[in-house]
Amino acid sequence: MKIAVIGANGQLGTDVFAAFSNNGDVVRGLTHADIELSDQNSVSQALNEFQPHVVVNTGAMHHVENCEREPEKAFATNGIGAKNLAQVSRSIGAVLMHISTDYVFDGNKGAPYTESDTPLPLNAYGITKLAGEHFVRTNTEKYFVVRTSGLFGKSPCRAKGGLNFIELMLKLGRERGEVRVVGDEFVTPTSTAELAQQLVLLSRSNSYGLYHATAEGSCSWYEFAREIFALSGSKAHVHLAAPGEFRAKVPRPKYSVLENQALKKQGLNIFKPWQEGLQNYLGQSAKTVSAQRNG
To answer: Is-contact 123 67, C-beta < 8 A?
Structure first.
């Protein structure tokens, strides 16, 4: 199949591009230089030229603080951009796979969120991403809206200064010998490589709709940090931060755990426990460092 990956140079997009390519698909990566999501003419031109069977949208305005400062810009990309993609995808007969977020929920449930739970975002980022979901679901029938959480991958995340949580912890551990991490926020750390494989499998299905797609299990950021140091062999110490020690500039959900109920119902869930994704990531990182030293 012909696959267009929007945001192909991003943390998730890089692995999505690789996963579809390794699957034998003809893949075209589209970056911000190739397509402007908020401009329907730009979207139409880019997709009509390639005529993909599947459009995978990993592009978004991700930086939570920037979204809060510039909600109109965030809505143009995350909301109107999704609308443009849905309309153009429908016009060329393509399936749209649109990546969304756990931030559409307020985190007050205290138990894993399923696809049937009512969203209630706390900030502009979550609101604009939820708007994007609605635009997709009302402008095309052939869609997968895929919510995920706590992503980490080998490619830099520009919205987070280039370092994912794992690399940030390892960096701080090397520099300081200890870190302080919050223990009252819960998430499911999810490997972008594993999510990319899930998207490839889902793209072969015609069971369109809304899906949650994260690794199995959950942990606090404190527990995640401890596992990072344990698996990497780091001697750095992890301390539990005091409540309110790292006060967020923008409200965020305290509990962002998603349950892959729809994937499991369709017999399509391939996710493993989050610890396995972390171990694979650290193993790949170690091989890369070793190859660079020997090269």
So the answer is: yes
The percent of residues above 90 in pLDDT, for the chain, comes to 82
Alpha helices per DSSP H over 215-270 = 221-232, 261-265
CA distances from 168 to 64, 156, 162 (A): 18, 11, 9
219 and 186 Cβ atoms separated by less than 8 Å: yes
Q: Is the full-model pTM beyond 0.85?
A: yes
**34-78 confidence digits (pLDDT tens):** 999 999 999 999 999 999 999 999 999 988 999 999 999 999 999
181-206 per-position pLDDT tens digit: 998 899 999 999 999 999 999 999 99
b/e code 31-62 from CB counts within 10 Å (16+ = b): eeebbbbbebeebbebbeebebebbbbbbbbb
- Going from the C-alpha of 268 to that of each of 154, 211, 232, 239, the distances in angstroms are 25, 11, 31, 38
As a whole number of angstroms, the distance between CA 204 and CA 122 comes to 34
What are the catalytic residues? 125
| Domains, the chain | 2-294 (3.40.50.720)
Please state at what angle helix 165-176 crosses helix 221-232, rounded to 10 degrees.
Answer: 70
Rounded Cα gap, residues 164 and 152, in angstroms: 6
